Amino acid sequence: MSHPQNILFLCSGNSARSILAEALATTLSHGRLIGYSAGAKPTGAVHPMAIELIQSMGYPLEVLRSKSWDEFGCEGAPKMDYIITLCDSAVGEECPYWPGHPSTAHWGFPDPAAVRAGDEAMLHAFKQVEMGLRNRIELLMDLPMDKLDHLELKEQLDSIHQRIKLGE
């Protein structure tokens, strides 16, 4: 790849899963990917456990914020190469227009912030989502992205999720 690829992770609330994915994509790829995140109905706050995990990655906390996906459909927004939904409700939402027709996929994860069995169980759920995202993003980085056409890339993005899901 000659230039960094932009990847947008979508979730309904943009407080946990998509925020984790943004930080992971950016930090794991060492500049090959630039992660972004947004939500259909942003909560307006980043979950404290997501902040805790992201801080340990060395990702700059000051750039984290819960935001609407509308920001990325506007003129002047970064052009996305990939858009990945992370929650089942976001995949069913009517999305804004994405300039450039990015490759899309759905990598569904349960919401770790919805765990109500105590802080320890919630932290475990957050770590499970982080590991699942980490595994998928590492596989994404192994793809010869500049050699795949749009359809092949979409198939590979979908395949990444299915391969790991079967192994979990």
From TrEMBL:
<dbReference type="GO" id="GO:0046685">
    <property type="term" value="P:response to arsenic-containing substance"/>
</dbReference>
<dbReference type="InterPro" id="IPR023485">
    <property type="entry name" value="Ptyr_pPase"/>
</dbReference>
<protein>
    <submittedName>
        <fullName>Protein-tyrosine-phosphatase</fullName>
    </submittedName>
</protein>
<keyword id="KW-0059">Arsenical resistance</keyword>
<dbReference type="InterPro" id="IPR036196">
    <property type="entry name" value="Ptyr_pPase_sf"/>
</dbReference>
<dbReference type="Pfam" id="PF01451">
    <property type="entry name" value="LMWPc"/>
</dbReference>
<feature type="domain" description="Phosphotyrosine protein phosphatase I">
    <location>
        <begin position="5"/>
        <end position="143"/>
    </location>
</feature>
